[in-house]
Amino acid sequence: MINAVGLHKAYRLKGRRIAALQGVDLHVRQGEVYGVVGRSGAGKSTLLRCVNLLERPDRGEVRVDGQDLTALGSARLRAARHGIGMVHQHFALLSSRTVAGNVAFPLEIAGVSRVERRRRVAELLDLVGLADRARAYPAQLSGGQKQRVGIARALAPRPKVLLSDEATSALDPATTAGILDLLRTLNRELGLTILLITHEMEVVKRVCDSAAIMEDGSFTESGRVSDLLRTPGSLLTRSLFPLPSDPPPGTVALTYPDGTDEPLMSQITRGFDVDVNIIAGALEEVAGHSVGRLNVRITGERRAEALAYLADNGLLVEEVR
């Protein structure tokens, strides 16, 4: 659905050239939630703005729904953007308009009739849980409600793609969870493809099917979250499940990407005559899947065979140095 190849973008600041994007390749499948995570200044927001051509890359190509946006003139690009919704960090609502008026705004610009606007606005406010706040003004809303209005407004033209630029960074944890759950619901019920920018790994853990870690204008790692959880040395896995500090000798970190009902620790104890000491463990939800994590100390002459057995049974096995 979104395919960006070889994106480069640089700015001039006080006579210096600042490289914001350095050869970024981004591939977002239709119907998935894709997260780009990184620190401030990593290039995330520039990447997002290049996807809908609010920023034109210096080099590279951007295709959305099969259309090469970088090859379009102004008029055709404006038309193509109707298929791309945008949710902003600080809501960007019109303070002089009601909730309903804010959601209706893009429809007015598009020339949609008043009757159809009212019908569509009512449908969207019900979808985001704000049917009873249609006549309220932004100043009367909480942060979470404002973001729900922003989401409803972005969905008004029926886009196939939704871009989210740090949409939850200004919200408290409980409200963030509600907004992320809403985005996941919209993704599933509407078949909406979502590309979200965030600096919070918790966002990736909660809703993303695929993710990329961005540093200094390029991706250091990208792929489906389920695949990265099986990849030794994955930065994403290390961020989601930090390794223990100062572990005893012989400690290994075991990740169960899909969970398991198999008594693997008992099996290696009996089958390979090793001792297993469980140091810590956790079971968490990652993108709707149960992922287990164990930090264990395994000792014995057949330790290497036991670790190979665990890896053969689908666990990610990492030595903790």
Automatic annotation (TrEMBL):
One Gene Ontology biological process: amino acid transport
GO molecular function per UniProt: ATP binding; ATP hydrolysis activity
Keyword Membrane set for record: yes
A Pfam family reported for this protein in Swiss-Prot or TrEMBL: ABC_tran
Domain ABC transporter, residue spans: 2-241
Domain of life assignment: Bacteria
The keyword Glycoprotein is assigned to this record: no
Keywords: Amino-acid transport, ATP-binding, Cell membrane, Membrane, Nucleotide-binding, Translocase, Transport
Assembly, per entry: Homodimer. Forms a membrane-associated complex with FtsX.
Functional note: Part of the ABC transporter FtsEX involved in cellular division. Has ATPase activity.
Record family assignment: Belongs to the ABC transporter superfamily.
Entry protein name: D-methionine transport system ATP-binding protein
Organism: Actinorugispora endophytica
